[in-house]
Specification:
18 strands; alpha/beta; homodimer
Amino acid sequence: MKFELTILGSGSSVPTANRNSAAQVLNVLERYFLIDCAEATQHQLRRFRVPYNKINHIFISHLHGDHFFGLMGFLSTLSLQGRRGEMHIYADSRLQEIMECQMKIMRSRFVYPIVFHALSRREELIYEDKVVTVTSFPLKHRYEAPVCGFLFREKERERTIRKDMVAAWKVPVAFMQYLKMGKDYVTPEGEVIANKRLTVAPPPSRSYAYITDTLFRERFSGYVQGVDLLYHEATYSKEDEVLARESYHSTAEQAAKLAESAGAKKLLLGHFSARYSDVTELLSEARTIFPNTFICSDGDVFEIPAQKREGY
Amino acid sequence: MKFELTILGSGSSVPTANRNSAAQVLNVLERYFLIDCAEATQHQLRRFRVPYNKINHIFISHLHGDHFFGLMGFLSTLSLQGRRGEMHIYADSRLQEIMECQMKIMRSRFVYPIVFHALSRREELIYEDKVVTVTSFPLKHRYEAPVCGFLFREKERERTIRKDMVAAWKVPVAFMQYLKMGKDYVTPEGEVIANKRLTVAPPPSRSYAYITDTLFRERFSGYVQGVDLLYHEATYSKEDEVLARESYHSTAEQAAKLAESAGAKKLLLGHFSARYSDVTELLSEARTIFPNTFICSDGDVFEIPAQKREGY
């Protein structure tokens, strides 16, 4: 029942020896989502032993090269290795233009289908299946084309039957599906048995939000209220706030403010400028406002464990 | 007076943990030439501490992704780091189309000039300065567009003055330039003093040839006669010769045959298929025909030392 994030690249525009540029993989109940795809992301996938053949969905936040230059290489490798299943790519529509232009000039094609989904400038449900939804929402970066954050949220599961209680009340089998949905049970004699006596609430659904590259805006917290795990770019420290503003990025302090405002449970910082060989000061600055903050490094794995919750 | 090759990627189409895809840097008397540029080449340049800011010329053998997918990332990094000097790119003209299409769609530009030089399907001098020439020559790979090998050759230097002899013969200073060019000296009395008594021959000029990706053709040896160091792809072993032929590649044995036919002094093998975790058998197969064969690994450095040659 995993909900697990693997950091493939925690650096920013120029990769360094210790931090590759932006990429992450999120495993939600064995759906593997690739989030951004900097150059050498396929190398990082291999290095950190991510089962990359299970990736069927790739989300690209925006079209700066440090977020997508690894895409063609990764898709090519999958093609050479004989992939057959569809690959879904969620990105600025211009990425499809770029890729189709290149494939046409090279007179080349992948051996599996690529399905493009164009991102918009508004909050939008972009993916849904039985267990998870993915929503994109607009950020504020250097240009006017879509720059998106992503929210991955487990769907709430059904309530769990308390077998001892349903046996005691002789609830018919045909009614189980309604119990799971939360309905009360009415006995043949007309007595109402409250649902919470017959079932257990499902564990709280888990969620992860990815916010990069962007200026800080308090209102973004509205898109990610109560999120379990929040990744927010912290390209600069607060001392370099002017640089952040000029380059349409955020500081660690601002990332913390957003986490606090959103009521997030845990904050991860990444996309560090190469000027900071030691990011401890950024961590301290964020923790002053939001104590449950952590630094991302390449290869780190963050799990949101499933919780059981008893209740009536 | 360096003539030194650094291997950045010795693998083939799919990078592995130990071998990145094709790229090399050749330092000829402090001119740094990048030869092919697979994905993650900028990472390898940094990893092996190559002074990549000194690269002003990039040679792309052909437009398969494992030879150029790292180019945009590398050029972008240089731009972000404030490069000003021109970058010359020698490649199939379609690479210019691909890059310009992408830059146009992204509404992006580099902060320094890129100068494209289109490769042709014939043997051609493509670069020359005071100390080195670069020649491209056609190979035989999967498609009809230019697929080129490259020959880097030091220009022959001038002869060296023997100061004791020119003093003894009272050769005027104004004549020194002609001595260096190889002319005999005629004394005022009419006596001819042979040049070889007054000068020393220059060291033999050094040369390096890069041959990939290609079928084996004996006639290619004509382009690289007497080369000091020859790199030839050995994607397959001779047991897999059918696979080599079907994919328009070469075997290690064929690489050795070419080296022998060309009268090369030393052969390097690379571009190994990922199927061979151990390439020892490829080395043995090549050495049966051409003993002075070596395997390339990422990070290897091969120097062709300058030789002094005494002579009359």
